[in-house]
Structure formats: structure tokens, C-alpha cells
Amino acid sequence: MAVPQTQLPGWTFEALYDDYRQALAEDEVLYDSRTEHQRIRVFTNPRFGRVLTLDDVVQTTEGDEFIYHEMLTHVPILAHGAARRVLIIGGGDGGMAREVLRHSAVERVTMVEIDAGVVAFSKKYLPGLSAGAFDDPRLELVIADGAQFVRDCADRFDVIIVDSTDPVGPGEVLFTDSFYGRAKACLAAGGILVTQNGVPFLQGAELTNTMRAFRALFADATCYLATVPTYAGGPMAFGWGTDGDARRTPAETLQDRFAAAGIETRYYTPEVHRGAFALPGYVLRLLP
Ligand code: SAM
């Protein structure tokens, strides 16, 4: 297959698929450097604001990050109903910690990020993402491989959120059966594991693999969806695994919990929460 022109000056072509590219115009490149783990870049786009890429794959943009971060935090936390201890694996930009910490009932957030460079860089170039989360005394930041962390961890968490890169490079290990098994062992009774699982229309195998592992581990294993414009190719899937029945929390209970939390959201609503678990046929067919 002929390789398309992907070197247009003033544009970033996302290097995620061989046969499908998303291009974002660059107004200004603010940062471009390599850590020992990955290439980190940030540039501004007129529509999405500041855009963070790792190894030339879009991780987050100022314009649409709220959808991803709200859906990976408020769905499991409000479904659980009494989450006190939350573990975030990855999440170096701080957006996930920001949303978790908006729940005043959460007492402790442990965030395990492999790359200190992402944290330092995000604080400087994307301060709106963490919005002070790194200074919150409830946050414990651990710079380590998330897979290693769950192997050695004796703590138990009510909610575990895997905010990883795609399954290439350092993030690959976070999509393995053994990682999921160890993560499950770190859940308290009734705990919930949620994961970023890519865009099923384009990355179906990734979802199938995670769901196969989840179905072997959890009494309730499925995924839920949200559309994030810069994760191109249709809605994105989030893996959901628990031995409890939090997914069936009635709408009225979610409404009450959401009101009690006193959180203002731009995407999450209890109705969206419930509806996100309704899966179209092509996604259902990816579930083993
Ligand atoms: N929302 C993004 C997406 O889906 O495109 C991903 C967010 S980004 C914050 C993911 C983070 O996971 C990066 O900061 C990366 O350094 C971190 N990460 C990758 N592999 C990891 C591992 N094995 N352990 C801990 N963190 C990891």
C-alpha cells in the first residue's frame, strides 16, 4: 500500500493506523522532546486548543478531554456509591486525578505513572488538565510501572482506573491478562475496574481481548461508550469489570448520588451514565 503524504508542514498526522490518519493543524509547537519512554509533543490547534501527543498518538486535547475524563471517573465512582480509595494507573497529564478529586468523599487517590516526564511536562504546558490535582494532599503520585505496582501492592481500592496509552510501547503490559488479574486482586469487595479500550470500530481486537480476560475474572464484565472527537473513528470503549452489581444502580440512586456529590460536569449526567452501557450491534459482536 502506498504511504500517504504525512509530512505536510504545519500539520500533525496521528501515527496510529497504517490505513487511516487523523490530521490536526498546528498553530504553534510548544514542546517536542523525548523521555526514556516516549516522544512527548504539545502544540496548539485552533479548534481543540493545546494537544498532547505521545509517540505521535493523540492523548488529550484541551477542547475535548472532559468527555474522556468525566466518563472514566464519575461512572465507576457514582455507580460504586461509597468509593474512598481510588487507584489510577497512567494518567500522567493529571486530568483523571482532577475529576476523581472532585468527589469530596474520596479520601485517597494513588496515581501510578511510569513517566515522570509526562507529569512534569503536563504541569507546565497543560496546567488546566490537572487544575491543582497534583497539590491535593489526598493524591499520592508514584512513578513506576503500573503492572509492577499491582504485582507488589498490598492495598485494596474501591475503584481502579486504567488511563493508559494504547497497547504499544510502555502501555502494552496494561492490556495483558496477568495485569488484569493482578489489578482485580487489588480491588476491595464490590470494587470496580475500568479501562480505556480504544475505539472499537478501528481497534476491535483490543476490546475483544480485554473483554475475554474480564469475563474470566469478573461476575459482571462489559464495556460502555462515549464519543471523544479526537479519538477518531467512532465511540470509544471503556472496559468495566466488577463482582458487584453497581452497573444496575437505579437511575434515581445515581441522580441522588450525583446531586449529593455537588459536581458540575460538561458531559456526564446520570442519564448518559445509564445509556453509555447500551451497546450497538457491532460492539456487542466484539464481546466474547
Ligand atoms: N487518554 C489517553 C489515550 O487514551 O489516548 C491516554 C492518557 S495518557 C495520560 C496515558 C499515560 O499512561 C501516559 O502518561 C503514559 O506515560 C502512561 N503509561 C503508559 N504505560 C504505563 C505503564 N506501564 N505504567 C504506568 N503508566 C503508564
UniProtKB/TrEMBL annotation:
PABS domain ranges (all copies): 9-243
Record pathway: Amine and polyamine biosynthesis; spermidine biosynthesis; spermidine from putrescine: step 1/1
Residues annotated as transmembrane: none
Keywords: Polyamine biosynthesis, Spermidine biosynthesis, Transferase
GO cellular component: cytosol
Chain sites annotated for binding spermidine: H69, D93, D163, S164, T165, D166
Assembly, per entry: Homodimer or homotetramer.
Family matches, as HAMAP family: Spermidine_synth
Name by which UniProt lists this protein: Polyamine aminopropyltransferase
Organism of provenance: Halovulum marinum
Gene name of this polypeptide: speE
